[in-house]
Amino acid sequence: MNFCRCHKIAMTCGNCGKVKITFHPYNLLALEIPVRQTSGSDQLSITLEECFTETFQAKEGAWSCDHCLKLAMKKLDIWTTPDILIIQLKRPHLYRTGQGSMPIDYPVEGLDLMGKVGLSEDKELVYDLFATINYTYDNPRKGIYTAFAKNFIDKQWYRYDGMCYHLSYAICADDS
Ligand SMILES: [Zn+2]
Questions:
Q1: Which residue ranges in the chain fall short of pLDDT 70?
Q2: Which residues have CB less than 5 Å away from ligand 1 (the ion)?
Q3: Of 92, 106, 98, which Cα lies nearest the Cα of 37?
Q4: Domain coordinates of the chain in residue numbers?
């Protein structure tokens, strides 16, 4: 069983055409949450699929070409996946836009990464959720962590707040 796998990063220079590919290990998959451009949007949540699209689209940026030093395009991809996949949803930037409490919809069962992974290694790429860590804060310096976790014996979800745990109805497969 492993937790750490690789990203593929491709830098493509639009000036000289040079392409540089590197592989970097990750132990959690950090996904960017897209910012809604229109304040009048009536969309009440963001899907995990939108987060994948935001994170793995090609981006112009401060990536200098090794050859001509011009800015290059950067494309991040998932190259391989671990047996236990940890996803981090990067939310802090949303607080500056007033969208910090925007819910993220994600599948409790059957998150299928087929088509999102460069090297499947002949293994199934479907993941079921069994725990979440939640950080809640009024300001970035002071907050609390709580967690939801599925008990594999009674199949129920429990909420843990550091002091005690409670049976939770906030997560169930029927809501996915
Ligand atoms: Zn170049």
A1: 1-4, 37-43, 62, 92-100, 138-141, 163-176
A2: 13, 15-16, 18, 65, 67-68
A3: 98
A4: 5-108
